[in-house]
Amino acid sequence: MLNKFLSLVNHPLKYKLFLLTKLPSAFFSGVRVTYADEEKCIVKIPFKWFSQNPFKSTYFACLSMAAEMSTGVLAMANTYQSNPPVSMLVLKVVGNYTKKATGFTYFTCEDGLALKQLIEGCIASKEAKPFTATSIGRNKEGDLIAEFEVTWSFKAKST
């Protein structure tokens, strides 16, 4: 199931169609997955007209959306078509911005294996469990733009 979801995410046309139909704000602001495997996900957001703020940089909400997606792709990869189904919900987002984003910003989350363990434990225990994933945003030069902590809740559904 993990590989099936990741192959969908890594297919340019299928994932763009998913974004357009399920997350249109991400689609139109230019959020794109550039890499995803079971351990890590990299998502980019451009500075462009649709994602700009009045200060000639990327709007903070667009940066937040890209950071959340880098964690959410890893979470969805581990819950996609699971049996029993697992619900997931964002409980909290904390962001620290350190530099203006004036070009592409790349958000990387490397919590895939820890998420997998937690979700497997959630299914086994049938209890809701929280997980805080970290996403680091850098520009193409490698400068730190922002750091996010996204807290998710996972719960196996009753069948």
Structural commentary:
The structure is a single chain. The chain contains five helices and six strands. The protein is of the alpha+beta class. A hairpin with a 4-residue loop joins strand 1 and strand 2. Helix 1 packs antiparallel against helix 4. The chain starts with a helix and ends with a strand. The relative contact order is 0.19.
Layout: helices, strands, pairs:
Elements: H1 2-9, H2 12-22, H3 24-29, E1 32-36, E2 41-45, H4 60-79, E3 86-97, E4 105-109, H5 112-125, E5 129-139, E6 144-156
Shape: globular
Please indicate the percent range of residues in DSSP E strands (runs of 2 or more): 25-35%
Radius of gyration: 16 Å
Largest sheet: 6 strands, antiparallel
Provide a brief overview of the structure.
With 159 residues, this protein is an alpha+beta fold. It has helices spanning 2-9, 12-22, 24-29, 60-79, 112-125, and strands at 32-36, 41-45, 86-97, 105-109, 129-139, 144-156.
What attributes characterize this protein structure?
6 strands, 6-stranded antiparallel beta sheet, single chain, 159 residues, alpha+beta
